[in-house]
TrEMBL record, chains A, B:
Species this protein is from: Streptomyces albidochromogenes
Domain of life: Bacteria
Upper classification of the organism: Bacteria, Bacillati, Actinomycetota, Actinomycetes, Kitasatosporales
Name of the protein: Crossover junction endodeoxyribonuclease RuvC
PROSITE patterns from the UniProt entry: RUVC (PS01321)
Residues that coordinate or bind Mg(2+) 1: 7, 141
Subunit structure: Homodimer which binds Holliday junction (HJ) DNA. The HJ becomes 2-fold symmetrical on binding to RuvC with unstacked arms; it has a different conformation from HJ DNA in complex with RuvA. In the full resolvosome a probable DNA-RuvA(4)-RuvB(12)-RuvC(2) complex forms which resolves the HJ.
Positions annotated as active site in the UniProt record: 7, 68, 141
Amino acid sequence: MRVLGVDPGLTRCGVGVVEGVAGRPLKMLGVGVVRTPADAELGDRLVAIERGIEAWLDEHRPEYVAVERVFSQHNVRTVMGTAQASAVAMLCAARRGLPVALHTPSEVKAAVTGNGRAEKDQVGAMVTRLLRLDAPPKPADAADALALAICHIWRAPAVNRLQQAHAAARAPRIPVRKVTR
Amino acid sequence: MRVLGVDPGLTRCGVGVVEGVAGRPLKMLGVGVVRTPADAELGDRLVAIERGIEAWLDEHRPEYVAVERVFSQHNVRTVMGTAQASAVAMLCAARRGLPVALHTPSEVKAAVTGNGRAEKDQVGAMVTRLLRLDAPPKPADAADALALAICHIWRAPAVNRLQQAHAAARAPRIPVRKVTR
């Protein structure tokens, strides 16, 4: 399976594409950051993020998009921007019919380091090792996007079964699309 | 000037179009609600809101879009959904090059009732009177969207001058587009 991970943000939106299945070596297909100027109008920044995400979807054709689930325990202003950037990423994916999965920061940390409270550096080090890179991707948002994609590949069997069960419970007469990996 | 007001929400997104200038009677061109099912996937709900907003922009061709500024003093889950719905509305407007203005709930209430802490009913009553309607628009989200549009028309001269000043300060060599009303 090919997954685009998105670490949403207005100023820096991390994006990373990973291919693989649980239990096999993973492969990084691309990593980067979509940036928007802090002094631009909010609407224009959202348009720039949309264009950036669309370009990544066009180039890498992922089958799944994994986005960091936004919590509001942080700075209020930052959280609003993060929620708005994540909305654009989810919109771009859903418009193409791609399944969107949300993972919390602690789920991602636990997936790649074994510790849900791991530091940024530790996440970067594990992403580097798991994808056999020469150095940790910079900035941290880029490494986090790859960690999200890895987390989704490893959690996907359970998450997809759960989504199928929910879908089946909601619409029992519509056949549930089989997820082939 | 013709303004689309948007009271953002995932379940009910109020929309209302008002035409007029400050100091003259205002005219309502349309009011409604874009709804999405609470049990749908978040990405699909955002796509449905995008389609709804696009349909309103296509039909009424507003020159400005006024969106409620989201605060996080309320329920955390609701605020995230509101921020995400507002991002879609701002994106749709900015993609068409329409200026997007954000007004806080208290600015809107103060504009239409004279009291920044007015109750929902009072806002509905004043919207009904100002637009010479037979009854308050239902649900409250629809009335709030009209109130946002009215607020923008009345605040616009000051807000637009401010936006022009900011734009001029940022890019002194680019001629500022004249706002004609």
